[in-house]
Structures are given as structure tokens and as C-alpha cells.
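Incident review: delayed structure delivery

Summary: a single-chain prediction request sat in the queue longer than the usual turnaround. Root cause was a stuck worker, restarted by the on-call engineer. No data loss occurred. The affected request and its eventual output are reproduced below so the record is complete for anyone auditing the incident later.

Affected input:
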Amino acid sequence: MNLFTHRRLVVVLALCLAALLRADTPAEILGLIDQLGSDDPDVRKVAEKKLFDRGESALAPLGKAVKDHPDPDVKLRAILLAQNIRRGSFGQLVKLEGHTGHVRSLALSRDGKRLLSGAMDATVRLWDTDTGKQLRKFDIPNGWGWQVAFSPDEKECITSGGKLGTLHRLDLESGKEIRTYTFPANHWTYGVAYSRDGKRVFGGVAGKDTDFSIRRFETDTGKEDAKLLGHSGFVWRLALSPDGKKLASVGCNDNSFRLWDPDSGKELFNGKDAHEGYVVGLAFSPDSKTLLTSARDSFVKLWDTENGRMLTTYKGLNGEAEAVAWASDGKRFLASDSKTVYVFDRESGKIVHRFEDHTEKVYAVAFFPDGRRAVSAGEDMVIRMWGVPR
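Output delivered after worker restart:
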């Protein structure tokens, strides 16, 4: 084969590949991609802007162009443009600033329009997620906003006061505190949750000597009506299952999680030695059938909530696994470590996206209901909202 014939064959193959690229790609996008190779800088600029504005829908065609397009200039510009689209679509969208201490907890309203944050600056704050405006600021004098939770009707919230040894029930409309639930002296409070009907609140204890209980109170009267015993370490986090039938707790330095009947207070399962490090995060799946736990052994684990059997161990984090949260469809979840938030595919266990804008450890994560945005916060005191790929 002579050189001329070889070059013709290369060109023909390239054109065939380009034709395959065009077979399942809208003609307008293909035309814009071709214009990335134009000698006219104005034409290139307009094409780049139109492709960038298309966002995620342009990524697959650009990826094919990188691989198959016969023009090397188009390939190079497609690489750079795809990077910019990912950065713009899946990077940081909004920063919420105001906290002056580590942000320890986040909770989104069911419609995703409001966000609660609790921090070690002795405040709980309510934010408008569309505008980024702070709507309310609640002071917890001499304490923390350790964990926060919306009430079932989302008109109120509850927070644990940490070293203050209290729970605080807050009215989101008036901005006033409704009630304080007080624990015995020398008891710190960490985990917190509402019952499904909102008539009970639960608080997890890091107590004096061996009191690592979960206390249950009547919401309206403040009367303690149950004490759930079993943990031998700080009750770091609590979560109520979406169907309201189970309460989950993690015991931090006892390396365990537990499942409880929230009505009777009976322990349903003891996840003893669930991890080889402090267990600090938990999240029920949307169907309540499974539970995620995260620990400072750098692993996230998935458990069957009916029998307590471990189903999967997720790996890939680069540090202590602090927080977890499910997407509303139950197909993906978030997990955080020292400075990074990961999007995991539940079925395959693969990491499908990383968010790396935080500068310190990430303590709290949450998925928006649409599954296209997430929010995270931690030691850098900034709440960051960011885009999530499909």
C-alpha cells in the first residue's frame, strides 16, 4: 500500500466514524461541534457558548467527538469544553455563608426549598435554597446545633444542644423557641429525631459514666416517657425510617448501630462491631428496607433492616467516612470524607462523581428531591450546593 492510498484509507475511516457519531446525535449539536474547528474565532466562540448552554446534554456528543472526530483541533476543543461544562453543571452552584463554627448537620424540607443547618457556633439556621437567603437564625446559648430535624409538618424543627445537655424545639415561622427538653447533669446530647406523628421526640445521650441512652419525650409536655438502653458509646446520630416503623442509632465509639421500635422502645437489632472505627453516619433508604452506615474506618456499609444482615461494603473513600444520604429514587447515595463528597451508584458500588470544593472535613450531606443537586457542609463552615450528573 503506497502512502497516498494509506492516507485516503485513514480519511475514509475517519469519515465513517464521524458518520456513526452523527447517526444518533442531533444535527444542530453536530454542526456546533464541527464549528469548533473553524478558522474564524468568532464562529468558534459562538459554537462554544451554544454547546456550553446545552449543559449535560452536550457531554455525550462531545465525548464521541473527542474519540472519533477527524479534526484534531475539534478533539482538543471538545475536551476543554466538556471540562468546563462539567465544572459549571456539576460543580458548586451556590455558597451559603454565615456560620462561624463547624457545620455538623443539614436537613432539607421535602420540597427542597428550605434547608436547616446546625453548627458548633451555637446556632441553627434556616435557608431559602432558591435565593440562598438566610430566613431564620436560632441561638443556642452555650451549646451547639449538633443534629437538626424538621417536624413532620415542617412548621417546626428540633436540635440537640451538644455539651449543653438539651434538646430545643423551634418554631420556624415565628423564629421563637417553643420548648427545651433537659437531660440530667453532665449529659451531652447528640442524636435527635421526631416520631412519625410528631408527638414524640428522641434524644441521644453521651452521658456520665455508663449512660449512653436514648431518651424519648412527649413533644408538647416535655415529659420523658421512655429510656432506650443498649449503647455503650456516644449516641451520635438518630434517624427515623420513612415508614416511621424503625428508629436507627449509631453509637460512635462503641462501633455499632441499633434498630429500635419507636413506639415500644424495644431493641430490634444490635449491630455490634458493625465497623472497625467510630460509626458516625446513618441513613435509611427511601423504602425503609435498608440502612447505610458510615464510619471512621473509611467504609460505608449497607444493611437489611428486617434481619440486620450486611448486604454490601462500599469502598473508595480517601479518609474517614463521616456522612451519608440517599437520593429519592434509592439508586444513588452521597458519602463524605476529609474534603470530598462522593456520589455512589448503589447497585454497582461505583463512584460516579466527586465534589471536591471543600477545604476541610465534610460532616453533613443531603440530596435534593430532584436528585440533580446536593448540599454539603463541615469544618470549613461553608454550606455548598452543587450539581449532580444523571
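Verification: The chain has two domains: 3-90, 93-387.
Action items: add queue-age alerting; document worker restart procedure.
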